Amino acid sequence: MRWTEEQRCLLWLSAAEISADRVRRMLEKRETARALWEDFAQGVALTSNAEATRTLGRFHSETALDALCERMEKLGVTPLFQDDPAYPALLGCIDDPPYVLYVMGDVSALSRPSLAVVGTRYPSAYGRDMARTLAFGLARAGMGIVSGMARGVDGCAHEGAADAGGSTVAVLGSGVNVPYPMENIGLYRRIIAGAGAVVSEYPLDAVPQTYHFPHRNRLISGLCYGVVLVEGRHKSGAMITVNTALDQGREVFAVPG
Questions:
Q1: For 226, phi and psi rounded to 5 degrees?
Q2: For the whole model, what pTM was predicted?
Q3: Which of 75, 62, 50, 85 is nearest to 11 (CA)?
Q4: Multiple choice CATH, 107-254, 3.30.70.2470, 3.40.50.450, 3.30.420.310, 3.20.20.70
Q5: 188 Cβ contact list (under 8 Å, min separation 6)
Q6: pLDDT tens digits, residue range 12-37?
Q7: C-beta atoms surrounding 251 within 10 Å
């Protein structure tokens, strides 16, 4: 696959995990990612983070970018950019959409009408059954199911959708080639092999960091028309997703119990 010069420069920024908000603000001043590439070559600091600056330097060559692109192709990773027709329209409407969205699996799954099913990592038997049952029924009705592939409610929701032969999208807090948690490696493979996708705004090989997960939750809600909460504490990742959904003008539902 061939990417434009501008897209390659966006991949370069993404490799250093420069945030969507930071890139948006830089592009407001310099207009193109290529201009930022040229600024960096002239010694302009694009970030105060030393590790990110080293990564920008490591990938600041056409040869390094070629190798990165070839590796993505070998792994079956599709990067979507905001000007790409396949970029999910709902996600593009949030305040800080990813400038690169990495996808493994069925890219079209991101544009299907979807609901997010989220909740605690330690659900009751009722919560596990409810997550599977809801996801199964919604998937059978043609609705995509989006969640974060965490243990507990997330995993049950993905399993329910897959059992129904439906579409499910897992939004990771790591690179798409770094399944997390490892206990869900079988589910990860099942999603990619089926009518679903694994997605992330983080680059290849990015390991999960604590701060990644609250930030990625805006993507879970951003891909969907609404969010269903199945068991969750007041201060939890699931509630962060509920709050981002409300901020984005999405519908929010809760399972009684």
A1: -165, 170
A2: 0.94
A3: 62
A4: 3.40.50.450
A5: 149, 170, 179, 198
A6: 999 999 989 999 999 988 889 999 99
A7: 12
